[in-house]
């Protein structure tokens, strides 16, 4: 995938997200929404510029369907729902009490940290596909460097930071409903992927001995 195409996709995705969030919040009057969308655009641009073009193509248009095709679209819908409910809550509905600005800023830092972890995982793992499959056409092999030295699924940990922190950064407790569902979905995916890789990826059994934790070092 060419850089021009990746930048076009970046612009389109951010235009769409802003086109959804700003009307929900009532325009530019809610600083937390504007600040979040700027942070999202910046981190998405960094990812766009750093990710391997072949991986970008695989993540956008996987070469074949994996064994768990439903989770990706559902997870995407839950992320959008988090942004929509958060923007509506803080801008128009005011169904929940606003969160303190300090909490929102801490959540924005967590959002950036989650994105940095995800970009790092993608930088070292050329097989970071959105589909759960063995990419035999690309010579799929076990990745044990970068964040994979300490935990087996750093990408999923990043996702579990990014979406809940989105709700807090927007300042909405209401947005935690789809965000919590998103986390539960990712935990299910982690379980399924671990079992799948144990059966199908050479060396994964030994890797579990070296990196026993799935998501959090020394905990789980």
Describe this structure in a few short sentences.
By secondary structure, this protein is mostly helical. The chain has helices at residues 3-25, 31-50, 53-60, 71-93, 101-124, 154-170, 176-200, 204-210.
Strand content: under 5%
CATH domain topology:
Four Helix Bundle (Hemerythrin (Met), subunit A)
Quote the distance from N terminus to C terminus: 36 Å
Mean pLDDT across all residues, rounded?
A: 94
Q: Give helix and strand order, one letter per element, not per position.
A: HHHHHHHH
Largest sheet: none
Helix percent band: 55-70%
Number of helices: 8
What keyword list fits this structure?
single chain, 220 residues, mainly alpha, Four Helix Bundle (Hemerythrin (Met), subunit A), 8 helices
Descriptive account of the structure:
It is a single chain. The protein is mainly alpha-helical and 220 residues long. It has a single domain (3-210), classed as Four Helix Bundle (Hemerythrin (Met), subunit A) (Up-down Bundle). It is built from eight helices and no strands. Helix 4 runs parallel beside helix 6 (154-170). The chain is globular. The N and C termini lie far apart (36 Å).
Please specify the SSE layout and strand pairing:
Elements: H1 3-25, H2 31-50, H3 53-60, H4 71-93, H5 101-124, H6 154-170, H7 176-200, H8 204-210
């Amino acid at each position: 995938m060419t850089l021009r195409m990746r930048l076009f996709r970046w612009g389109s995705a951010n235009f769409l997200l802003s086109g959804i969030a700003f009307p929900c919040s009532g325009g530019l009057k809610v600083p937390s929404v504007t600040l979040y969308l700027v942070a999202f655009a910046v981190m998405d641009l960094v990812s766009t510029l750093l990710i391997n073009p072949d991986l970008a193509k695989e993540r956008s248009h996987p070469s074949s369907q994996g064994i768990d095709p439903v989770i990706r679209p559902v997870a995407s819908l839950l992320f959008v729902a988090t942004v929509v409910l958060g923007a509506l809550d803080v801008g128009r509905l005011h169904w929940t009490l606003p969160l303190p600005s300090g909490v929102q800023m801490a959540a924005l830092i967590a959002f950036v940290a989650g994105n940095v972890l995800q970009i790092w995982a993608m930088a070292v793992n050329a097989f970071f596909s959105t589909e759960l499959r063995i990419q035999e056409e690309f010579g799929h092999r076990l990745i044990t460097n970068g964040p994979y030295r300490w935990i087996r699924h750093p990408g999923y940990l990043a996702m579990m930071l990014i979406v809940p922190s989105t709700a807090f950064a927007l300042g909405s407790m209401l947005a935690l409903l789809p965000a919590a569902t998103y986390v539960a979905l990712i935990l299910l995916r982690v379980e399924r992927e671990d079992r799948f890789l144990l059966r199908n990826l050479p060396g994964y059994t030994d890797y579990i001995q070296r990196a026993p934790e799935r998501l959090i070092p020394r905990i789980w």
